[in-house]
Design a protein that fits this description.
About 75% of the residues lie in helices and about 0% in strands. It is mainly α and about 475 residues long.
């Protein structure tokens, strides 16, 4: 009866139009109060839920993404992507996918990837003849790679909910992320209009820079990928520490190397006519003078404020979802599910099918992190009993969350893409639909070919050992 009230309360509040985080949180609080808990103990539980060390990586990755998005990194990434794949048939569309792939490895967020890369990539596609709707569909879908390619905020949330290794999750996402990107570009090669991006024409001359200069301009961004992943798997720092390093690194690059924001914005590092040593010393002197002021510059404040808003919103969803998961644990729902699944003879393939259906349905109405925190603790014990690798389960859930980002009524990428293009959401959805079908095919492959997710983590770190 109490369990019925818990779920019934969530559904009732959702019908009234209350946001999902509040619906889940208020229902959980009501359930706990009915079971004799005090408001003080509930407040302590909410506070404890947010104290998970793994979750500390989230605000740092968000802050890093904010600096990267505010600065000129997106322009450099798009230019690099055009150089890499722009010469193929359908090259500009493929460059949009490649740019999302690269930026995904910098941001860890799907909406941030669409915001940063979307406008530039869509304008480039329109310039060479693609329709805005087609371009919006490509970028909206490719932006979902932001939560599949490491570092991924959603993977951090899954790791926190199930106590698996964040490092293993990041490794598990590499092969599926690259595979999804290659699959998207392969489909574009076949179905996209037969146009090539000709460097120096159609307005794509990179502001007079050569291909080599374009590659050099993107090096500092690519080094961030090496810094994060190399630092984690080289044993230099933990994923949470890597997130903090990424935030500091992106701040430094945006302010003092690329100089796209802050005191030195618009001031070139290299001035013609100066000797090499003069340029170096002048650049260092400018940096030293600007360093203390940069922390308080309006651009820095804007980036930090945007990151803080996103963090507060996400953490509010997370702590309410964790409180709901705690209520389910008190009712022994995970143990009940294990018993039911085994009693009715469910096998791994049928269990994964049900998990996919639940997540595809839930992903249409809930934010990915909140949905994961509710569903993962429920299905995780069942998966272990059926011999499913925890990393494989995590990647399957993340791919479902990708699809949820591009399905109505609350697919966040749809609204972000609509905002940057000026198209209505229905038009964006029509552009996304063919790619949605492809993502469903990709989900089936990832679900039933576990090697794709487990090969790299098992090779690098050995088999996963999980204690219930």
């Amino acid at each position: 009866m109490e369990l019925f009230m818990l779920f019934g309360g969530v559904i009732f509040l959702l019908i009234l139009g209350i946001p999902i985080a509040l619906s889940v949180g208020l229902s959980s609080i009501a359930y706990l109060l009915l079971n004799g808990a005090s408001m003080t103990s509930i407040a302590v539980k909410l506070f404890d839920s947010s104290q998970h060390y793994t979750l500390l990586a989230i605000p740092f990755f968000i802050l890093s993404s904010s600096f990267m998005t505010t600065g000129g990194m997106a322009r450099r990434v798009v230019d690099l992507a055009i150089v890499m794949v722009g010469w193929f048939r359908g090259g500009m569309a493929m460059a949009g996918v490649m740019a999302c792939t690269i930026f995904a490895a910098l941001s860890g967020s799907s909406p941030a990837t669409v915001v940063a890369v979307g406008r530039l990539a869509i304008e480039g596609m329109e310039r060479v003849g693609y329709s805005k709707r087609f371009a919006a569909g490509v970028v909206c879908n490719a932006g979902t790679l932001g939560i599949l390619i490491p570092p991924s905020i959603v993977m951090v949330v899954y790791a926190a909910a199930t106590d698996v290794s964040v490092g293993r999750m990041f490794l598990g996402g590499m092969v599926p992320g690259i595979l999804a990107s290659v699959l998207l570009m392969a489909v574009l090669y076949v179905v996209a209009p037969k146009r090539k991006v000709v460097l120096g024409e159609e307005g794509l001359d990179f502001e007079g820079r050569s291909k080599g200069e374009v590659v050099l301009r993107s090096v500092w961004g690519l080094l961030m990928i090496v810094l994060i992943l190399g630092g984690i798997y080289g044993g230099i720092f933990t994923p949470t520490e890597a997130a903090a390093v990424a935030a500091v690194y992106s701040f430094f690059v945006a302010h003092f190397v690329h100089r796209d924001m802050g005191v030195l914005k618009g001031k070139p590092f290299v001035v013609g006519g100066e000797g090499f040593l003069v340029q170096v010393f002048r650049g260092l002197w400018d940096t030293l003078k600007a360093f203390p002021v940069s922390f308080f510059h309006a651009d820095t404040k804007k980036s930090v404020l945007e990151a803080a808003r996103t963090t507060v919103m996400l953490m509010f969803i997370i702590v309410n979802a964790l409180l709901f998961a705690y209520a389910l644990t008190l009712e022994r729902v995970p143990q009940m599910l294990v018993g039911l699944m085994l009693e009715y003879g469910f096998e791994a393939w049928s269990f994964l099918l049900i998990v996919n259906l639940v997540l595809l349905l839930g992903g249409q109405f809930m934010e990915p992190s909140g949905l994961l925190l509710i569903v993962a603790p429920l299905v995780f014990p069942v998966a272990l009993e059926l011999g499913i690798d925890p990393i494989h389960l995590g990647i399957v859930m993340v791919v479902n969350m990708e699809i949820g980002m591009i399905t109505p009524p609350v697919g966040l990428n749809l609204f972000v893409t609509s905002g940057i293009t000026g198209l209505d959401v229905v038009s964006v959805l029509r552009g996304v639909f063919p790619w949605l079908v492809m993502m469903l095919f990709f989900l089936i492959v990832v679900t039933y070919v576990p090697w794709i997710s487990t090969f790299l983590p098992n090779m690098v770190m050995g088999p996963e050992i999980v204690t219930e």
